[in-house]
């Protein structure tokens, strides 16, 4: 059995999954993780086996997104399975997993902004694209994304070290963010960082989308390339909107739990699939399926090749 406790305004609600339900949820989660891991692995292998990709800033940013998504998906899947198998784990292990998950989650919108800017430069300043978007500058941009993504998680650690007693770090807890970081300061700090980061990314995507849309109407611009870049940024916007669903989660969860109090765990599981799993399918679609160059090299990982066997005659035996 699996227990989960939710604290409401008036009382504490305890719910429990049956063994068959818990098993089904874990099988589905692990299966989806295996499928996405295979797709991401094929993308990474394709990238590193072909020189034309790792010398192109566009594909470097893309593969960074793929690796980041793979890390985020693996950590969240581990947290999900661990919550069923062990229920309570040490604070140190819990912090390590939550740090990686939060770090990778914050990297996602920043990576989307970087990829949108690269497409903007390629379409609106094609003559200077090779000078502005170099491989070295792309690596610097990725380092900046990692640094900016780590800041919120590191400040969570500092606040927790300053506010929690020493005994807390030697205890075991049910590993969710609110149990690990209990100080109200962490909540308000996280809200501030989320609003700052997602506002910046939203404005970046909107600006680049509009500029590319205007460029597509210009006679001097390759309209087919501009239209494709515009659609790519539009898909980035969809990914961002799915990431921003985390903001409405508390209000939505309270409303759904109030309407369906007997389905608390199902509501949280659906939220996990929609917020953490579904957006990870979009990255392979944005480039892996829509990009002609990358699709040509990916076919070998997803198409079964049948070898023609020549029959052997009696004289050849």
Please provide a written account of the structure.
The chain has 317 residues and is mainly alpha-helical. 76% of the residues lie in helices and 6% in strands. The chain is built from 13 helices and four strands. It has helices spanning 19-49, 51-54, 57-85, 91-124, 129-132, 135-163, 177-180, 184-216, 223-243, 245-259, 264-277, 279-289, 292-302; strands spanning 2-7, 12-17, 88-90, 172-174. A two-stranded antiparallel ribbon has the order 1-2. A two-stranded antiparallel ribbon has the order 3-4. Helix 1 (19-49) packs parallel to helix 12 (279-289), helix 1 (19-49) packs across helix 13 and helix 4 runs antiparallel to helix 6. Mean pLDDT is 79; it is low at 1-14. The chain crosses the membrane at residues 27-48, 60-80, 86-105, 140-162, 195-212, 233-249, 269-289. This is Odorant receptor 131-2-like. One of its GO terms (molecular function) is olfactory receptor activity. It comes from Acipenser oxyrinchus oxyrinchus. Residues 39-287 form the G-protein coupled receptors family 1 profile domain.
